[in-house]
Structures are given as structure tokens and as C-alpha cells.
Amino acid sequence: MAKVLMVVTGVDSIELADGRVHSTGFWAEELVELHRGLRAAGHAVDVATPGGVQPTVDPGSLAGASEEITGYLAGLAPVLAQPRVLAEVRDGEYDAIVLPGGHGPMADLATDPDLGRLLVDAADRDAVVGVLCHGPAGLLSAVRADGRFAFAGRRLAVFTDAEEHQGGLGDASPYFVEARLRDLGAVIASAEPWSSTVVSDGSLVSGQNPQSSVATAERLVEVLAGR
């Protein structure tokens, strides 16, 4: 059984490029399917947020969500009400770090020094890192003291710029996660918009969008089983 740290955004809004404020948080389906898949496989999953704040579900992710998703999320309420403080997590404490999406990670996890520290440590010891949809925004924090991106040259999927234009924040997005990762040297291997797409590059597992939630959880379980 692996010890998994699920790092969840702590924000409930994001400032758009035009100055408006957009309500956000974590995406319900992504957090639920990752958590459920890992727990069903017998892994221990802890939740952490910056400052230990209770995370907020993105209201857009509840529109049309199934009763199965909302029911599982309701059952997680006690866990989400008392997350670990991200700054208190020690290097090497977990076998895997997992980042669900929602636009929230763009606002806090992308620049969080403690997440960056943990991700650099994970990359250096080849621990499993799983990211989904906008969760890869958290990888942007993984910059070494010398300025090198810890995941440069690694293949990954991410909510694409095309998807952001088609069904995301569009031109109002404060930045585009795919473009930022490319600029830092990540090798983007996403597929057609809205396809269920998962990319594995060694210990790095990434899913493209909400449609990839179940498949990403399944791939993480496979990778952890092989450790």
C-alpha cells in the first residue's frame, strides 16, 4: 500500500485577464475519481492544501454532476474539512503526489513554494507524480534553485490551450497552462480536445481533462503497483 498526498487548491476564485473575478476551486469529478480509484486499490490518501484551508469545489463542476459524484464528495466532507497544512509535509514522506484540477491550481499551486519543494524532491527520488486537467499548473512551481524546471523534457498531458478556448476561460484566462509548461521545456503530448487521454512518462502520470479522470486514476494505480 502506497502513501499518497493529494494536493488540492485552496482558492475559491481566480482573477481573469480582464480584471473580473471568476469563482473556482477544485473540479469535483477529478478529485472524486482520483481519490476513489486510489482508495479502492488499497492506497492511503491524505489531502493537503496551502495553509491547511478547507478547499472549495468549483461550482461549475457540480452542474450536471452525477449523484454518484456528489454523494462521494459528500462522504469526503470530513476529510476536506481538515486537510494537512502543505508547508508541514516533509520531503520523502509520501510515495506519490497527486494534483486534481479545476482552475484553482492556476491561482495558488502554480507558485506555491512548498508544493515546488515537494515536487522537486519527488522528481529527484523518482516518486510517482499524478496530475489531471489543470492540475499540471502545480508543476509550474517545481523550479530548482538554479532556475531549472524539474520536469523539463518530460512528456505529459494537460488541459490544452484549445480546450481552454473552446470550453474554459477563453481569452479571459490569466494564462494558458499548456503554453507555460511548453515554455519551461515540458513535452506536451495531449490529444484531441475532450478526448480521454492519459500520458505516462516513467513516474509521471498525467490526464488531459475531466473526461480523463477515471483513466488517470487507473493508470496511477497501475504505476504504483509496479513500484
TrEMBL record:
Presence of keyword Transmembrane helix: no
Listed InterPro entries: Class_I_gatase-like (IPR029062), DJ-1/PfpI (IPR002818), Prot/Nucl_acid_deglycase (IPR050325)
CDD domains tied to this protein: GATase1_Hsp31_like (cd03141)
Superkingdom, taxonomy of origin: Bacteria
Stretch forming the signal peptide: none
Residue ranges that the Swiss-Prot or TrEMBL entry lists as coiled coil: none
SUPFAM superfamilies linked to this entry: Class I glutamine amidotransferase-like (SSF52317)
Pfam family, one: DJ-1_PfpI
The DJ-1/PfpI domain, residue ranges: 26-222
Key words, A-Z: Glutamine amidotransferase, Lyase, Stress response
Family: Belongs to the peptidase C56 family. HSP31-like subfamily.
Name the UniProt record assigns to this protein: Type 1 glutamine amidotransferase domain-containing protein
Originating species: Microbacterium salsuginis
